[in-house]
Design brief:
- The complex is a heterodimer.
- By secondary structure, chain A is an alpha/beta fold.
- Chain A has helices spanning 2-9, 54-61, 84-94, 110-120, 125-138, 154-166, 184-199, 211-217, and strands spanning 10-23, 26-39, 43-47, 69-74, 77-78, 95-98, 172-176, 203-208, 220-225, 228-234.
- Chain A has one domain: 3-Layer(aba) Sandwich (Rossmann fold), CATH 3.40.50.
- Chain A is 37% helix and 29% strand.
- Chain A has a 6-stranded mixed beta sheet, with helices on both faces. In chain A, strands 2-1-4-5 form a 4-stranded antiparallel beta sheet.
- In chain A, helix 4 (110-120) crosses helix 5 and helix 4 packs parallel to helix 6 (154-166).
- The longest helix of chain A is centred in the C-terminal third of the chain and has 16 residues, at 184-199.
- Chain A is globular.
- Chain A starts with a helix and ends in a 5-residue tail after the last strand.
- Chain B has 2 domains: 3-50 and 261-401, no CATH class; 56-249, no CATH class.
- Chain B has 13 helices and 11 strands.
- Chain B has a 6-stranded mixed barrel. A 4-stranded antiparallel beta sheet of chain B has the order 2-10-1-11, sandwiched between helices.
- By secondary structure, chain B is of the alpha+beta class.
- The chains are: A alpha/beta, B alpha+beta.
- The interface between A and B is medium-sized, with 26 and 24 residues.
């Protein structure tokens, strides 16, 4: 009974997942037999030094990559059985990505970048423009809507990336080293924003190599080392 | 999603490279459009020349079968006695012998070379005038009993034969060094053959050119216009008898206007097919250019493809983006090609008409434009299929790494 309750609350579940890469004659075990349960509304950090497999784990959580072994569930659905296009649809609807490099489309304006994920999901034009406007106001970017990514600062670009991640109202936001390319102050602003989104009930998963950042913001921390989970810690946050 | 807007942005960003890629398609389409326009203009011009020499007449020529004018040193020429025999056929209403000889004309101290045509006497004169719908724009036509007189085609009057001065009725011209009075000018026919002709009474032409009884052509008007082939067969049978030749080894040709037109059309068609072949090669090379540019583009935009996939683009959507972009490359190239091609074709046709004295205006062929545009889009899109598939198949994680 208890297990079923847990799975109801579970939004992403990696069960005994492994990802191997072939490098010439060697097989690199990027992640090896890890299980991660991400509960709805949690604020999760995936911690580890470089080469620990945290980015691979992140890609698996975000269904960008398929595991060599094991199963990945999004809600009740085993997404390791889906094909590329079905995965893309699932990503577009349920997961918002934020990258270290911001990864905005350089040929599109701020506004168009935010509209794009909705366009890909076939949201009607009126609706998606209204939504983009709302999000851009919230992130204090409305004034910049007609700028191209190379015309605004790094902090602003990362906020555009957050705006884009929010476009389809995803339950989960995945951030891969979101503060990696930002100065401390701007980085903290981004993290505060993620905290706000978490308080609204969204599930946040972020990858970092900074224990301070992980401890300060995350509720659950997965410590990865050499492709395996070393430990899982829970942080108590003062509300 | 709006693939077209996306495509436009990307092409604009690539600037000069896009335009260079367009060149191949552009030249190919330009060649096709300009030459088809030119070809159609030429066809119309040639048909109009034909139209003047009447579509009701069957023409009989001694073999060698040179179409139209002279230089015809045929082994066994047609003569006036042949004309008389042909006239007797029940399926023939009227027949008249035509002599067209080349010679020189002198006026204003300038000499030009051209052709003169005979005008027979009596009823035959009326028949010929009727057939060519002869009407004088100035002065009068020749009559029975005129001697030392000629009338001229419109171009002599319009100073288009290179003499440097219009020839007017009343002027005296020298033909083969003998003086003739110009009695009139034929109204404009829009046919360079007719508009450049000198018309002389038959007897005078015969003696001036020592032409004897030889005819270049016999024009035959059938009794029944709907049954030209019957007349044609009758004339052939008759001439075989007179000349003593067997079926299949005739030393003369009898041609209906339709057949002659069809022959000219088939030559023009062959030219057009050749042109299309050459243009196709250029388009093919253009398509390879597009494949090349798009493949490079997929490599350059690998990261963008990764981002698109991460934020929910399906393989199909990525494919469509590159596919449409490639199609637009083709479309722009084709569009420029059509534009330039029509300009070239238009001025080409105007030029030809000026040269031959016709006044056909080139027609803008919207059918051709539409299909050229559609075709260039499809060529571009087709060329983009492989690169687009390559783009769509990128693994998102690899692509994001850039």
């Amino acid at each position: 009974m208890k297990k079923q309750e847990d799975s109801e609350k579970m939004i992403i579940h990696l069960r005994n997942v492994a990802k191997y890469y072939e490098m010439g004659e060697n097989i690199v075990r990027a992640v090896d037999d890890i299980s991660i349960d991400i509960k709805r509304g949690d604020f999760v950090a995936v911690m580890g030094p470089s080469g620990s497999g945290k980015s691979t784990a992140m890609n698996l959580i975000g269904s960008l990559d398929m595991p060599t072994k094991g199963h990945i569930f999004l809600g009740e659905e085993d997404i390791s059985l889906l094909d590329e296009s079905e995965l893309a649809q699932i990503r577009g609807k349920n997961i918002g990505f934020i990258f270290q490099q911001f990864n905005l489309i350089p040929t599109l304006t701020v506004f168009e970048n935010v509209v794009l994920p909705m366009t890909l999901q076939g949201v009607p034009q009126y609706e998606r423009e209204e939504k983009a406007e709302k999000i851009l106001h919230r992130l204090d970017l409305w004034e910049r809507r007609n700028h191209y990514p190379n015309q605004i600062s790094g902090g602003q670009q990362q906020r555009v990336a957050i705006a884009r991640a929010l476009a389809n109202d995803p339950e989960v936001i995945l951030a891969d080293e979101p503060t990696g390319n930002l100065d401390t102050k701007t980085g903290l602003r981004v993290m505060d924003f993620l905290t706000d989104l978490n308080k609204e009930g969204r599930t946040i998963v972020f990858v970092t190599h900074s224990p301070e950042l992980a401890k300060k913001y995350a509720h659950t921390i997965y410590w990865l080392k050499d492709g395996k989970i070393e430990k899982i810690t829970k942080e108590r946050k003062k509300e | 999603m709006n693939y077209f807007k996306f495509a436009y942005r990307n092409l604009k960003k690539k600037g000069i490279r896009s335009y260079l890629t367009l060149l191949g398609i552009c030249i190919g389409i330009l060649a096709i459009v300009s030459l088809i326009t030119l070809g159609n203009g030429l066809k119309a011009a040639v048909s109009s020349q034909f139209g003047v020499s009447s579509t009701e007449l069957i023409s009989v020529q001694a073999s060698g079968g040179n179409f139209g004018p002279p230089g015809t040193d045929t082994v066994n020429p047609l003569t006036f006695s042949d004309v008389e025999e042909i006239k007797k056929l029940s399926s023939v209403r009227e027949a008249v012998g035509r002599m067209i000889v080349s010679g020189k004309l002198e006026f204003n101290n300038k000499v030009v070379f051209g052709y003169a045509m005979n005008i027979p006497e009596g009823d035959d004169r009326d028949f010929v005038y009727n057939q060519i719908e002869a009407k004088a724009i100035s002065g009068r036509l020749l009559e029975d009993g005129d001697s030392g007189k000629v009338f001229l085609g419109y171009n002599f009057y319009a100073d288009k034969v290179g003499i440097g001065k219009p020839i007017l009725p009343g002027n005296t011209v020298k033909i083969q060094d003998k003086s003739f009075e110009v009695v009139g000018i034929l109204e404009k026919k829009g046919s360079f053959i007719m508009d450049n002709l000198v018309f002389m009474n038959e007897k005078e032409l015969q003696s001036l050119f020592n032409n004897g009884d030889e005819l270049n052509l016999i024009a035959v008007l059938p009794t029944d216009k709907e049954n030209m082939d019957k007349t044609k067969e009758d004339v052939e049978r008759l001439l075989r008898g007179i000349r003593g030749v067997k079926v299949g080894s005739e030393d003369f040709t009898v041609s209906t206007p339709e057949a002659s037109l069809a022959q000219i059309n088939s030559i023009l068609n062959a030219i057009q097919i050749f042109v299309i072949l050459v243009a196709s090669i250029s388009i093919f090379i253009g398509a390879i250019g597009i494949i090349n540019t798009m493949t490079t583009s997929v490599l350059e935009r690998k990261k963008e493809i990764g981002i698109m996939k991460a934020i929910g683009a399906t393989n199909n959507q990525i494919f469509m983006q590159f596919f449409v972009e490639s199609g637009i490359l083709g479309l722009i190239g084709g569009g420029i090609g059509i534009f330039l091609g029509i300009i070239i074709g238009y001025f080409g046709v105007v030029g030809i008409n000026n040269f031959i004295g016709g006044d056909m205006l080139p027609k803008i062929n919207f059918f051709l434009i539409f299909f050229s545009l559609l075709g260039s889009f499809l060529i571009g899109a087709l060329a983009g299929i492989l690169p687009a598939m390559k783009a769509a198949k990128q693994n998102p994680v690899d692509a994001l790494r850039g």
